[in-house]
Amino acid sequence: MAPAADGTGAYESAAPERAPEPGEPPATAEPFMKPLVSDLPDRPDGDGPVVFGTPGRPVAARTSPFAPMRPAPVPLPPAAKPPARQTGAQSPPGSGEARGVTTGKPAAAGTVTAATAAAGTVTAEGAAAGGAARSAAPAETERVGPEGTRGMPVPPAPAAPGQAPLKLLAELTNTPPPRQTAWRTTLRRFKIWTPLVVVLALVYVIVQAVRPLPAPALELTAASSYTFAGTPLPQSMPWPSQGQSVAEVEGIGLLGVHGAQTPVPIASVTKVMTAYLILRDHPIAAQQNGPLITVDQQAADESSSADESTAAVKAGQRFTERQMLQLLLIPSGNNIARLLARWDSGTQQAFVTKMTSAAAGLGMTHTTYTGASGFEETTVSTAEDQLKLARQVMRNEVFRSVVALPNVDIPGVGTIYNNNNDLVHYGVVGVKTGSSTPAGGALMWAANKTVDGKQQLVLGVTLQQRGGATVYDSLQLALKNSQKLIESVQGGLTSATIVKKGEVVGEIDDAMGGTTPVVAGANLTAIGWPGMKVGVTLDANSSGVPHSARAGTAVGRLSFGTGAARTSVPVLLGSDLKEPSFAKKLTHF
Question: pTM for this one?
Answer without folding.
Answer: 0.62
